[in-house]
Amino acid sequence: MKRVPQYRTRVLFFAWGDSIHARRRIGIFCEDDSFEVGVVSTFRYGFENASNYYLSGVLQADEKASRLLRLMTRCCFALPGSLLYLAMRFFGGASLAECSNFVRDIFLIRRYINDFRPDVVFLQTLMYPCFLSYFWLNKIPMIVTFWNGDVTWWAKWTGIERALKRKIVQHGARRAAAITVNSRAALNACLGYGATEEKVRLIRYPGVNLQMFKPHLNRAEVREQLGLPSESRIVFCPRGLGGYLNSDIIIEAAAQVIKRFPDTQFLFMVRDDVREVWDFHLKQARELGVVSNILGVGNVPWENMPLYYQAADVMVSISSNDSLPNCMLEAMACGVPVIMGDIPQISEWVTDGKNGYSTPPRDPFELASRIVRVFADQNGVVDEIVQHNIGLIHREVDSRIVAVAVKELVHGIANGTRV
Fold first, then answer.
1. Which of 50-59, 80-89, 209-218, 276-285 shows the lowest per-residue confidence on average (mean pLDDT)?
2. Cis geometry, peptide bond prior to residue 206 (ω within 30 degrees of 0)
3. What is the secondary structure of 266-284 as a DSSP string?
4. 30, HSE (Cβ side, Cα atoms, 13 Å)
5. Looking at the domain assignment, is residue 213 inside a domain?
6. What is the CATH number of the domain that holds 386?
7. Is residue 140 part of a domain?
8. Would you tell me how many other CB atoms lie within 10 Å of the CB of residue 40?
9. Which of 16, 32, 186, 281 is the most exposed place for a label (fewest CB within 10 A)?
10. Residue 114 in this model has a pLDDT that exceeds 90
């Protein structure tokens, strides 16, 4: 029988959307008996061993909740609400529905904070709705995990968040009792927004689960299990499609690689919400004459991801904006060489030709040359890269070690310990 501590630290998380990062970051607290966990979100996570609180987007599916929310909207969108709507329209083109949800969620958050009575509020980003907690946090200490997009390139919602993002970040940097970041670039950005050095922690949690993500001795066996060609060279592209992920550049590079290595297969993760982008890429590949070398796999549970890394010869992620991508860390842990976009946050981890390869994010010819270098390796450089990175991951981002660090931080803030 587990021994439950006499007093458990009550931590209320705010999470954005359907995020594997939020699932893992919050999950490590739900599994620990020294914490009592609440989660406020715009997505129905349904965390076990936690009090789950949902905002407008989720509650509208419930008829009773919808009646309550409609009543709240009529009350809120009197004169002050109308002014808010006009302001949001002016600043960012937010729709009436978005403005309505904004106001509803502010009052729902107040109700949830009063209900849960947290010792600490922990924001998992400053994406909507996390920053709405600012309205009600007076004496409750706040911890923020800044996503790199919050502080270096401003991940945005719509409406008022887009117009006021800088102020939202500045307030979070100054108001927070503690801040966690996962790159030195983000750490320096937080200092620039007014955070003090003693409150910013470089804690790269949740880290990598090394019991799951590890090399496999028989790549052909893994490929057979996944239904992938056993003799082909496989380039794995796990990040998704479109926008700053530069998947169009990967397709262009594929045409160059296939001229040298015709059996190469490029394997992309294709979620349901990017089907239109995938169709565009298939058209692009068809025009380049390489559509038969482009493979897509649908929504893959995170628990099955190690198999895809273990099946690959190289992993490619050339995003223009990034923080510390889990795909890079997980590929390294699985013994797969990585090719990444050459941006500051990645250069903290990857030195071109030493422990991986980096390339300008929008240069298909440079990307193709890096892939060819991996495939044409004659001097055992790739093996040296793989062994170096396995050791790096074990030293720096073992999930068991970083979980302890972030939990100690939360307990300390809750108990009034200086960060």
1. 80-89
2. yes
3. EEEE--GGGHHHHHHHHHH
4. 17
5. no
6. 3.40.50.2000
7. yes
8. 25
9. 32
10. yes
